[in-house]
Write a structure and sequence with these properties.
7-stranded mixed sheet, Aspartate Aminotransferase, domain 1, alpha/beta, globular, about 15% strand, binds pyridoxal-5'-phosphate, Aspartate Aminotransferase, domain 2, 4-stranded antiparallel sheet, 14 helices
């Protein structure tokens, strides 16, 4: 590590565009996408729809906007959306379900943050005129706050069966669905084929500077385009961003296993210390969450100490710290960070 370079493990959103992305951005053919005239955006949407085997796709500025467009299109004000207690859509989107769509979140707790069909079933409102209607079920794969945990297909299937039976649409927050695919060997199309809408991010593990896509059938995409404009997400010569997104979507998924191996390597190394709470076998993708509360250390204190040595992390609360591996950190960077954590934790704070 050089003096001025930080090892930034706060998130996989911190990556800078690769040289190939920058070249593609400079060379991008563009037009006004609100008039449906940007060929690079159209190409990105076609490639995304082919990849997920959906009728259509829509480029949106952020994952949050993508999730919230999907909620808005598929619900009515006053309905409930079933969400997992620690999900991004509930905790980190500033109450947008209610603020933008008049939807009441119905949080359901789940063992290890992976929803169980029978708990979802118990949360679905009976069809009685004086009760709110359950308008949507939201799932997250991989689950950010559960440490990049994969939602296993065999746990998702009964939820899709139930949703179909009750006529309730399912939205899949697949911000990191490519990480789930890389880890399980299933394709993103297989992982999402039964969802009514899917959102995935180009700007996380895939390394693009900006952008997400939402996917669904043709009617969903038509409605989503209108809502995107209403939410202020109609963009003009945005092919410059879609060009980087195309490089991300076509070139980056294959390298995600490297990030997963780096995350596992960090976890295995720090698990050697009895002062650190982590089970490395639970690290399935590119997120490592570990606990510290011994030798006078807590999460904010350790995060500050690491930052002084050029390693950036996110404290989640007093005990837990999150590290996320990505394209801009090497295996050596990750092991350097792990050794630094071990060194601090060996001594009193
Ligand atoms: C699971 C999940 N969904 C949605 C988002 C929102 O993405 P954005 O930051 O692009 O709004 C994030 C961002 O971290 C996320 O982790």
């Amino acid at each position: 590590m050089t003096e001025d370079r930080k090892i930034d493990l706060r998130s996989d959103t911190v990556t800078r565009p690769t040289p190939e992305m920058r070249r593609a951005m400079a060379d991008a053919e563009v037009g006004d996408d609100v008039f449906l005239e940007d060929p690079t955006v159209t190409r990105l949407e076609e490639v995304a729809a082919e990849t997920f085997q959906t009728e259509g796709a829509l480029f949106v500025p952020t994952g949050t906007m993508g999730n919230q467009i999907a909620v808005n299109v598929q619900t009515e004000p006053g309905e409930e959306a079933i969400v997992e207690t620690r999900s991004h859509i509930l905790n980190y989107e500033l109450g947008a379900l209610s603020a933008l769509s008049g939807v009441v979140p119905r949080p359901v707790a789940a063992e290890g943050a992976i929803l169980d069909a029978k708990d979802v079933e118990a949360a679905i409102r009976p069809d009685i005129y004086y009760l709110p209607r359950t308008g949507l079920i939201c799932l997250e794969n991989t689950h950010n706050m559960a440490g990049g945990k994969i939602f296993p297909s065999e746990k998702m299937e009964p939820i899709f069966d139930l949703a179909r039976e009750r006529g309730i649409p399912v939205h899949l927050d697949g911000a990191r669905i490519f990480n789930a695919a890389a880890a399980t060997g299933e394709s993103v199309a297989e992982l999402s084929s039964r969802a009514d809408s899917v959102m995935f991010c180009l700007s996380k593990g895939l390394g693009a500077p900006v952008g997400s896509l939402i996917l669904g059938d043709a009617n969903f995409i038509t409605a989503a385009r209108t809502v995107r404009k209403r939410f202020g997400g109609g963009m003009r010569q945005v092919g410059v961003l879609a060009a980087a997104g195309l490089v991300a979507l076509t070139g980056m998924p294959d390298r995600l296993p490297e990030d997963h191996e780096s995350a596992r390597a960090i976890a295995e190394r720090i698990a050697d210390s009895s002062t650190i709470d982590i089970d490395p076998t639970t690290v399935q993708t590119n997120i490592v969450i570990f606990g510290v509360n011994q030798n006078g250390w807590d999460a904010p204190k350790l995060t500050l100490a690491l930052e002084e040595k050029g390693v950036l992390a996110v404290p989640l609360d007093r005990t837990y710290i999150r590290l996320v591996t990505h394209y801009d950190v090497s295996r050596a960077d990750c092991l350097f960070a792990a050794d630094l954590i071990l060194k601090f934790m060996k001594n009193k704070s």
